Amino acid sequence: MKKLSTSVNETLRIGKVVARKLCGGEIILLSGSLGAGKTVLAKGIAQGLGIDKHNVVSPTFVLLRVYKGKRFLNHFDFYRVKSPKEILALGYEEYFYSDCVTVIEWPERLKFLLPKEFLKIKLSNRFGNQRMLEFTGRGARYKQLLKVIHENIRH
């Protein structure tokens, strides 16, 4: 599924729609180049979970930030990670496989640690503030989640 976002506010709205369909325990991968809108989308997801979007900042320098809302949000950013061994040292399984919502920016850095099932949203820059969001689900749970998001994102 693809969705064109024409503004920062639209990207935030899409994130809120995604969040409203989450029940906890989901892993959401956000990929795209620098400035593609990954953190903006993460802010929208946080907002949909009842977290003030202004409190959500990129965890680039600390790798992980945990926020409390209707559900806990684990927000990872692996941009500065050079090797999956650095991720192993975090005890990442406790976060990935919990009842919290987990959002991961730069998931390609996980390599062999990448979860088997997830919702992936790839963001691509377009003209001006436009972003193309491409959604894919891996695993039955995430394919079903993708259908529900698709039905709700159009409105």
- For the report, how would you describe the main beta sheet? 7 strands, mixed
Q: Using the coordinates above, name the CATH class.
A: Alpha Beta
Secondary-structure-based class equals alpha/beta
Strand content: 25-35%
Strand order of the largest sheet: 1-7-6-2-5-4-3
H-E string: EHEHEEHHEEEH
**Fourth-level CATH superfamily:** P-loop containing nucleotide triphosphate hydrolases
Helix segment tally: 5
Care to describe what's here?
It is a single chain. This protein has 155 residues and is an alpha/beta fold. The chain has a single domain, classed as P-loop containing nucleotide triphosphate hydrolases (Rossmann fold), CATH 3.40.50.300. It is built from five helices and seven strands, in the order βαβαββααβββα. It has a seven-stranded mixed beta sheet. A hairpin with a 3-residue loop joins strand 3 (64-68) and strand 4. Helix 1 (8-20) crosses helix 2. The protein is globular and about 40 Å long. It starts with a strand and ends with a helix. The mean pLDDT is 90.
